[in-house]
Structure to design on (374 residues):
């Protein structure tokens, strides 16, 4: 049986979450917008419970959470939804990095093509930004800083606390794509200087197709976002459409479990990672990215091509060589390219990612298979 080691792409749904989703699909199937009967009332109650469960992960208020289809939509609302405010205030400068997920880079590129100026923080081989570079890059017309928390390819953790300190005296809104850390590595996300947090259910053992955008108020004022879709007025007028109650309920429960178990999950993941690093080190593996999450390892082995390795490992472990969201036609990783790695190292890069549901990892088999390619 193949061991699944691609949790950064998507996670399995926890059994208790799946059971709740099924119950909401078949028994408590009301529309949360229906106000005339108990089916609608029960659905609305489930949504509001989930809203609190999501908010609790980052110590936000439940009124600061809107549900979306996932982090990609949350990112788009956070970035494109800022456009009207930015144009009215004549603040059209955005700061980000070149290692962001395409769900951040492409909306920002769209704004760049429509009169905005974008500055990119460099990361170098570490894959980690220097907060002092941000300090020097800030301008009076900087409206938005968008920096991911944990990189989806390398696992490199950005210094969010230090970034918040740099922004403490500046009015720019801070958006953090937390798809890979929400519910798993969330200590930094409780910082009240973070205005916008994107999260995705299928990265934290909930179903695909559900996520959230946390919009922290400054005092009593919500971030000045405008909707990017229209029709219905749900989710505070920012995200119209009938709420996916079963998915929302499942996402909420997954967040509650993750919030309670995160320390335990981190320790388990780190123990697994230490075993991987030790085994692969014997093969001369080069680790790509520093200060990385315990849930992921990106590595290259000199002389080994990642495509060949993935084929060789088929039936043993399921791994990847980039972001699943852009893998329909393989091109060199924009993340590793932005880090300045050489082409051979990029071509050889393999990502393994796991979680608390990972067991029975055949390390010796992985090692033997890769040795055949060296």
């Amino acid at each position: 049986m193949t061991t699944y080691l691609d949790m950064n792409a998507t996670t399995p749904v926890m059994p208790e979450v799946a059971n709740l989703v099924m119950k909401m699909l078949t028994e408590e199937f009301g529309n949360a917008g229906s106000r005339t009967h108990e089916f609608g009332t029960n659905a609305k109650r489930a949504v509001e419970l989930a809203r609190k469960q999501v908010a609790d992960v980052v110590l936000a208020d439940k009124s600061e959470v809107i549900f979306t289809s996932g982090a990609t939509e949350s990112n788009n609302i956070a970035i494109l939804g800022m456009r009207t405010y930015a144009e009215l205030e004549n603040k059209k400068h955005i700061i980000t990095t070149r290692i962001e997920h395409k769900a951040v880079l492409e909306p920002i590129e769209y704004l760049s093509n429509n009169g905005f100026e974008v500055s990119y923080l460099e990361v170098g081989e570490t894959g980690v930004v220097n907060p002092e570079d941000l300090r020097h890059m800030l301008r009076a017309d900087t409206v938005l800083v968008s920096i991911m928390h944990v990189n989806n390819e390398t696992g490199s953790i950005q210094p969010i606390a230090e970034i918040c300190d740099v922004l403490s005296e500046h009015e720019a809104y801070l958006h953090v794509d937390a798809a890979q850390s929400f519910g798993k590595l969330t200590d930094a996300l409780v910082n009240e200087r973070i205005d916008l947090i994107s999260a995705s259910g299928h990265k934290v053992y909930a179903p695909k197709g559900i996520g959230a955008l946390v919009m922290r108020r400054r005092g009593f004022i919500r971030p000045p976002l405008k909707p990017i879709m229209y029709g219905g007025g749900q989710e505070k007028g920012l995200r119209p459409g009938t709420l996916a109650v079963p998915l929302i309920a499942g996402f909420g429960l997954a967040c509650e479990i993750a919030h309670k178990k995160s320390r335990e999950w981190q320790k388990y993941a780190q123990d697994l990672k230490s075993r991987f690093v030790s085994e692969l080190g014997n093969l001369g593996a080069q680790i790509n990215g520093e200060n990385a999450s315990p849930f992921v390892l990106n590595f290259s082995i000199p002389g080994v091509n990642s495509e060949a390795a993935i084929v060789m490992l088929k039936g043993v472990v399921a791994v990847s060589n980039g972001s699943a969201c852009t893998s329909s036609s393989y091109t060199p990783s924009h993340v590793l390219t932005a880090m300045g790695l050489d082409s051979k190292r990029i071509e050889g890069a393999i990502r393994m990612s796991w979680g608390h549901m990972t067991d029975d990892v055949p390390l010796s088999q992985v090692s033997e298979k890769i040795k055949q390619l060296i």
